[in-house]
Amino acid sequence: MKIRISEISEGMNHFHFDVDASELDIDFIKFETPVTVDIDAYRVSDQIDFKLNFKCKMFFECDRCLEPFDYLCVNNFNVVYKNIAVQRNVIEDSQDDILKFYNLNDVYIDLLPDLRDLIIISVPMRKVHDENSQNCLALNTELNSSENSKKEVNPVWDKLVELKKKKKNKS
Ligand SMILES: [Zn+2]
Asked: How far is the centre of ligand 1, averaged over its atoms, from the C-alpha of 139 (Å)?
């Protein structure tokens, strides 16, 4: 995901990449699709503000029911690159942005390591089916068992009602 610095013109630029999972080398995530990355690069002189948006499908096993499911992973972040040789023309950034430097001799800025970090922190800690999902076996079982227990309660109530009726009839 290298961008040639000389190809980033003053003002707004757009870049698009489809990054294959093998390039990322994240062995604990199974990717269903390449990672689609859209980048806005805003350049003022020797400072370039990148805004990255990425999207991909991951393949998890549900922690709750162990069934496989697809997870749509979407996130974005900002990273600011400054020419390390030109520190005087620095523009104030918001504190949320990650600040990095490129060297005067650099031809490219490679955003792949930044993307890699972002993807790793975007993976949910708990990998489970959506609460509303019909596909989660564990959730379905919970629902069914609560329905069953209702059914089991009903006959008892029926008997009580019957008993009460009988008592009424006798009196
Ligand atoms: Zn599940």
From this structure: 7
